[in-house]
């Protein structure tokens, strides 16, 4: 066992390997492989340009323990091409992190140039990631919060309620731009999928009263990579998965968990996502269309009749605008939804509960 304590501003332990060796290596049969403590700086520093910055191995005790009572870091690992830190357990927990303070994270992951984390289970019978809460499903506060967009390829199972409206990706088949609030109808046969095997409806502005081909209200402009970019991105993802599998087989001691690819296609370039730089979708471009749920605004024309909250809405002869339903029989199958606010006259927008029927 090695135990070193620093009370100054220098690291308690620092190891440096300039070739393919290990910066710091500690082994213990029953105790702590490496222990570094610092009251003001870094407990343990390990550096290697091509291998592990720090590797701690123990048969029964703790492989690596780092403790910082001041403002320093308990662990800091750096590697040019290898792993900044590598943790392995044959039966227990590979990494166990705990924070007792009210302002500290048990784990913090950051990448300056790539993804912040990669989580995978070696079996297809167990979850790759499991998030638990103190009170389980009955807890009011969410067990997981994502400050941004979530992307999933696969199915979503929810045993409780879901908040928010539902959209589908659609392609503009019109000769004019489509923008948020426009009422659209099916224009032609669907185009090729851009996400999984989901068909993409081709749409245009609604321009006829009580049009049964209505499909919803335009929400946001979408960026969709061309087919060649999507194919190259998928090939890159497969190469990364293959590299990760090889790294798993050798215990991470030789292979990197990602492929060595020059001029990588970024996730932003290779995947479908909202285009924040555009306010409208031009001909041939894509947009998300609200097909169910409460939405902030649909364009309406009250010249066909004043609109009050609760009124049924349908398509009108004013292109892209909804109107109040004046003949329920004629509007059967052409209902956009129900107005959630009012407009006495002129044109404008109202909040809407989209319920196509």
Features:
mainly beta
Explain what this protein looks like in three dimensions.
The chain is mostly beta strands. Helices cover 8% and strands 32% of the residues. The protein contains two helices and 20 strands. The mean pLDDT is 85.
Residue fraction in strands: 25-35%
Widest sheet: strand ordering: 9-12-11-13-16
Task: Look at the structure and give the mean pLDDT.
Answer: 85
State the secondary-structure class.
Answer: mainly beta
**Gap between N and C termini:** 72 Å
What composes the largest sheet? 5 strands, mixed, barrel
Order of helices and strands: EEEEEEEEEEEEEHHEEEEEEE
Number of helices: 2
Number of beta-strand segments: 20
Radius of gyration: 28 Å
Based on Cα principal axes, name the global outline: elongated
Low-confidence stretches: none
Give a brief outline of the structure:
The chain is mainly beta.
List the helices and strands and how they pair.
Elements: E1 2-6, E2 13-16, E3 24-28, E4 34-38, E5 44-48, E6 54-58, E7 64-68, E8 76-79, E9 166-172, E10 178-179, E11 183-191, E12 200-205, E13 214-223, H1 227-249, H2 267-270, E14 273-274, E15 280-281, E16 286-301, E17 312-315, E18 322-324, E19 335-339, E20 347-355
Parallel strand pairs: 1-4, 2-5, 3-6, 4-7, 5-8, 9-12
Antiparallel strand pairs: 9-16, 10-15, 11-12, 11-13, 13-14, 13-16, 16-20, 17-18, 17-19, 19-20
